[in-house]
User: Fold this.
Amino acid sequence: MTSITTALPPAVRNHVGLTPGVSQGPALLAGIAQGPGLVAHRDRLGPAPRPSAEALVELARDVDLRGRGGAGFPFAIKLAAAARRRAVVVVNASEGEPASHKDAALMTCSPHVVLDGAAAVAHALSTREVHIVVPSELPSLRLIVEKALRERATAGERLKVQLHDAEPRFVAGQAQAVLQLMAGRENLPVTSWQPQAVSGHKGRPTLLSNAETFAHLGHLARVGAAGYAAHGTADEPGTTLLTLRGDAWDPQVREVAFGTPLEDVLDEDEMRRPLLLGGYHGTWLRPAQLRGLTVSRNDIAAAGATLGAGVMLPLAEGWCPLVRTAALVDYLAGESAGRCGPCRNGLPAMAEAVGALVHDGGPVRRVEELCGLVVQRGACAHPDGTARLVASMLQRFPQEVDSHSLGTCRSGREEELG
Amino acid sequence: MSEHQLRVDWPACKGHGLCAELLPEVLSRDEWGFPIVDGPVKNEVLAMARRAVKACPTLALRLTEQPPRHA
Assistant:
């Protein structure tokens, strides 16, 4: 497989201004060489099937389809809960995590793969109301989606689709923040008292999922559970999208089957360095933990980490993982929406405490205390994710923590020392 | 019978601290004055928990019968 690589439209770029490369994949990204048009899409795959809600729930359960926004919630449960009168479908392609580009890659290279899934879900839920949330910092993505929707309307699809522009901030893609945006309020998280599937947009049952999740669903409806299991393992059928080095100079989006050895995803050099898995809210792994690891939710959970939204960030050559973490916590503290007291106060305090530990040998105890203080005390999981990153730094790099306490770590400090 | 839980509407909470004054059995305050829910609400203090909910000036406290859940 692979070898065909395409570049995203120039306007799709990471925060250092680089456009991620996208490789052809086995399922969702199989048609990227044919371009984003509907005709090529239908020529390749034929018409999109329209299973009933019951059939779709059963398919999703058969292959244990999980949400791809990061939390990994079982999709069958969500769909079954939303399958009531006056349901609303929401495709979340906003991708607030700056190191993740997989949804942008999917929406720009193969929008119809996502839209087939959204149409299948809308049909199953007997609704025509579909909302698509796009990142406002990528105007070219919106244009591609608009064009794809025009093609579908011309071909006779009768969906009422509304596009919404998510703000360029970390927490804007969080589910409650997306519902706020759709309601015309500020694009920020609020407290959720009920699951969205029960009471979401305007109090209606709302199936809100990540763009990649809809793409998997469309593929699953087309090929069936057995066809879907052509890739992956018996425990984890199917594929997943990964963003590699999303905030570095050569970001890449790849689709791989579950069970793919990490050696096939990272190069030899990267296998010898610490890996931040799951993005800025993710978990560090030591190089020794990477050997034998596969791209698998179960394997990765057994190693004490989570795949999250599929972001893999190998530590750059010559860097100290503590210095890198301190920089990320600074960034994350700045991304607090500032609405919830424990996050507004706790994240800057944590950035300060981690900075003190890393740069001035400050106390570890203060860092641990703050990690405990912010968890489960906010409208969204931003404080929890930040605490997870910091806790994994303390857990995986105890020797480095000691050497920072003693002021003896020299790696990654060249710039700082001038 | 299911136990009751206190849940905080975090964006609404301004850290006035009345709830922790009324219900120290269940609530304490962090270093910035925001409430920390230390555990479930036992039946002995259920009436006081209801008073704490009513006393909140920003209506940021709720009594629920479910365990705390993340969005």
